[in-house]
Amino acid sequence: MDEDFKDIPTTTLADVLGRERVMDVGMRPLWAGMPRWPDRPSPCGARPGTT
C-alpha cells in the first residue's frame, strides 16, 4: 500500500483525508514545562510492514 501513495505529497493526502484523519496542528505538551524528546532520533530495526 505504501507504494501506491509514495508519489503523492503529504499535504495533498491531508487535504483529501480531512481533519479527522490527520494529526491536529494544535497538539500541545501534556503539562507546562514538559521536557522535549530526550535525545536525537535513532533508527530502529523494524522491517517494512511490522509497524
- Characterize the biggest β-sheet: none
Beta-strand content = under 5%
Shape: flat
Mean pLDDT: 77
Order of helices and strands: HH
Portion of residues within helices: 10-25%
Residue runs with pLDDT of under 50 for 5 or more positions: none
Total DSSP helices: 2
Count of strand segments: 0
> What is the gyration radius calculated from CA atoms?
16 Å
Structural class designation: mainly alpha
State the end-to-end distance. 13 Å
Question: How would you sum up this structure, described in words?
Answer:
By secondary structure, the protein is an all-alpha fold. The chain contains two helices and no strands. The longest helix is centred in the N-terminal third of the chain and has 8 residues, at 10-17. It is flat. The protein starts with a helix and ends in a 34-residue tail after the last helix.
Comma- or semicolon-separated keywords:
51 residues; mainly alpha; 2 helices; 0% strand; flat
Brief account:
Helices cover 24% and strands 0% of the residues. It is mainly alpha-helical.
Helix and strand arrangement:
Blueprint: H1 2-5, H2 10-17
